[in-house]
Amino acid sequence: MLPTSTTFFQFHSIYNKYNTVGNWKKNRKTVTTICKTCGCSFEKIKSEYDRAELKSGNHYCSRSCCGKDNIKKQLGEWYGKGNATQLISNNGRDEFTGFRDFLRRAKNKDKLGDLTLVDLKEQWKKQKGMCPYTGIQLKLSTYSKLKKPKIHELASLDRINSNKLYEKGNIIFVSTPINYMKNTMTEKETVGFCKKIAYFWKDKW
To answer: Where is pLDDT greater, at 52 or 77?
Structure first.
């Protein structure tokens, strides 16, 4: 006999009440133990306690305490020594930060000529960081989620003559969407195409 709708929902209500993950864990046997890092006492599921006893005998009340103890083991006698205030967050940055990735990409595409970091920096200064097609002030990639530029502001390295390598005199920084659009077009063709887009939209704004 099939249950009525009332009986069916009553059954599922009782089932869900006693079979959630939280209630399942509450019904497991626990033991009181001491955290190795902070020294506080806490309840730990017995099966996990026994597994830790067989492995290392160490118990932690949180991931934070476990991490602190691991760092202490790794640093050994140096743990707690030194002055962290002397650390500089941007100590890996230098005058060529933001330019190295352009050389790496050109090399990966097997299109790198005699181009150097100095050449890239000089070209950037020559353009004053501005896209010659749109006049947009460009930004170099920092790989920071907090300071990530918009795609039309992101600088992209383009070859003036796409048949040649990335080399001094054949490079220019442009807006990333412009580089996508330009592809193998010449500078004159690209400007002409941009004019067509502008003409098409001039009365539609």
So the answer is: 52
